[in-house]
UniProtKB/TrEMBL annotation:
Organism field: Aquimixticola soesokkakensis
Alphabetical list of InterPro entries matching this protein: Aldolase_TIM (IPR013785), Ribul_P_3_epim (IPR026019), Ribul_P_3_epim-like (IPR000056), RibuloseP-bd_barrel (IPR011060)
Highest classification ranks of the organism: Bacteria, Pseudomonadati, Pseudomonadota, Alphaproteobacteria, Rhodobacterales
Pfam families per the UniProt record, alphabetical: Ribul_P_3_epim
Alphabetical list of NCBIfam families matching this protein: PRK05581.1-4 (NF004076), rpe (TIGR01163)
Name of this chain's protein: Ribulose-phosphate 3-epimerase
Amino acid sequence: MPQTVFERNVKIAPSILSADFANFGAEIRAIEAQGCDWVHVDVMDGHFVPNLTFGPQTCKAIRPHIKTVMDVHLMIAPVDPYIEAFAEAGADFISAHVESGPHVHRTMQAIRGCGVKAGIALNPATPVEAVEYLLDMVDLVNVMTVNPGFGGQKLIQSQIAKVERLRAMIGDRPIHIEIDGGVDPTTIPLVRAAGADVFVAGSAVFKGGSVDQPEVYGDNMRKLRAAAE
Ligand code: DX5
Ligand code: ZN
């Protein structure tokens, strides 16, 4: 069942960017059986970011395997023409980037208009003020702690202070703060202390495991959770 009540507890969201692309269904079942909270789905267009992954059809195909929360992160521009397709694919959250176009206010309206929770993502160079006038229309802010496009990069330390500022700006609003990029047991305590509650992790979850050795995914997630809590 998707989480419906807003909470600031620690949520681990493995990114399937680091999973076996030929075996998404089994990979998703494995990470959920091993205790993940959300499933993070990275969509890249080879234009907004220098890498390509997949589109709404793949999202729709993997949807039935996700029993938790399907968190779709769109790294595409333009984004507006594709929102409906990702909503129809069954996303619980759709995040689009501030930098994806001139009318992200409209983009957030469009996502919510499809009955999906809206997320706004910020590249590392984008100031936190960019989301100030969107806060009453979003459910999640994704703070990119690496330059989007690839897994396995190092967390950019300057983003920790940005998370603190964002947390203060959000106040009592029911908005998740998601960290995306370079999350591992050494960095997760820092971003948790700064105020984040959703932690995307690709390499730190999938490293060393496989669908035949899913307990490694479980160990990796327990290490992350323990370090955050
Ligand atoms: C990067 C993606 C991330 C990425 C995180 O563009 O948005 O979700 O998969 O990977 P790690 O955890 O390996 O940094
Ligand atoms: Zn992502």
